[in-house]
Amino acid sequence: MTYYRKLQTPPAEVVNTNGRFNFGCYNAPFTNVNLLNAQKPYALPLPRFVKNLQLREWQAFQLTNGRYFIMVAIYNAKKMALVQFIVYDKEQNKKWRYEKKVAPFQLQVAQGLYNTQSGYQSNNFTLAVLNRLEQERFEISASIKDFENLPNLEANFTGFHSVAETEPLVSVLPFAQNRGMYTHKCLMPAQGTLLLDGVATPFARTNSAMIIDDHKGYYPYPTRYDWVTALGHTPDGVLLGFNLTRNQALNPEQYNENCLWYNGKITTLPPVTMQRPNGVKNTWYIKDRYGMVDLSFTPVAHTSVNMNLLLLASRYEGPYGFFNGYIQHHSGNKIAIDQLFGMGEQFYLRA
C-alpha cells in the first residue's frame, strides 16, 4: 500500500463568504483566519459571542539549539487559560517550568499571522509573540522575574518563515458538517538568546530551529488527542522535524496534520496510532498502516497539568524525550530519526 495526500493552494479565508469551512490541507498561509464567521458550527444557531466562548485558541512554539529544548504556549480555552515557558537542558537533564494560569480575558491570541500579536503581561511574567509573516518572521520575547523560586529568565528569538524555503502545513479539519479546526504548522530556522539565571546561551541560526503551531478550533465535547513532535538537524546539518497527531477529525486519511519536514520540504503522512503499554511516562510507539512511520519515544522529563472543577476537567500529560526509528520521505527513502529530541502530549478536556 502507498499513501499520498496532496496539499492544495489555500483560498484567502478559513471560512468562506457563505459561512462554510474550507476543509482541506494546504501549502501556504491563510490571509484571513475567520472561524467566528462560521454559520451554525453547532446544531443551533449561536450569536458570535457564544461561538467565541466555544472557540479554543492558542499559539505554541518549540525551539532548540541542540542542547536546550524550549516550549512556549499562549493558550485560551475561554473557560480556562494559561501561559507557559518551559526550558529543558538535555546535558544536565534539568527542566525549568514557568507556567501561570490566568483569566481568559488577560491574554491575547492573534487572529492570523500577518502583523498581529499574541501575549500576556503582568508585573513579573511577560510573554509576547509578534507575527510578522509579511516580513517572513516571528519574534518571541519573554521576561520572567521573581516567579515561584525559579531563576530569572529573559529570552528573545526570531523564526524565519519563508514559504519558498520552509513549507508550512496548513490544515482545516472537520469535526462535523460545518464545525472544525484550523492549524498552521511550520518548521523553520531560528536564532536568538536565552538568558537564564544570568547565563546567556546563544541560539545560532546555523544550529537552531523552531516549530510554530497557530491553532483555533471548535473542538468536540469532550476533547481527546495524542500528539508528538520533534525538531533539530541531521548529523550533516539538514533541518529535520515532524508533526504527528491522532485527534477527533473526520476522515483522517484525507484530513490530518501529519507530516515530515526535511530540508525545508514537506512529506505528508498518513494517520498514526500511539501506543503506551506502560503509561505516558514510559516508551511510546508511533506507527501507521502503510509502513511510513515507525518511531519510539522515550520520555526523560514530564509536565502534567490537571484540573477538576465539576463541569470543567482537564488532564494534560506532556513528556519530553528522544525519538528513534524512521519516517519515509516522499522519495521512498527512509529518513533515520536518531535520538531526535521533542515532546508528546496526551490531552483530555471537558469544558
Protein architecture, described:
By secondary structure, the protein is an all-beta fold. It has one domain (47-350). The protein has one helix spanning 48-54, and strands at residues 24-26, 56-64, 68-76, 81-89, 94-102, 114-121, 125-132, 137-144, 153-160, 169-176, 179-196, 199-203, 209-217, 223-233, 239-246, 259-262, 265-268, 273-275, 284-287, 293-309, 312-328, 334-350. It is globular and about 55 Å long. The model has no long low-confidence stretch (mean pLDDT 97).
Q: Total helix count?
A: 1
Global shape: globular
Counting structural domains, the number is: 1
> Which value, in Å, is the CA radius of gyration?
19 Å
Q: Please, what is the average pLDDT?
A: 97
Number of strands: 22
Largest sheet: 13 strands, antiparallel
How widely separated are the two ends?
A: 40 Å
In a few lines, what is going on in this structure?
With 351 residues, the protein is an all-beta fold.
Indicate the topology.
Blueprint: E1 24-26, H1 48-54, E2 56-64, E3 68-76, E4 81-89, E5 94-102, E6 114-121, E7 125-132, E8 137-144, E9 153-160, E10 169-176, E11 179-196, E12 199-203, E13 209-217, E14 223-233, E15 239-246, E16 259-262, E17 265-268, E18 273-275, E19 284-287, E20 293-309, E21 312-328, E22 334-350
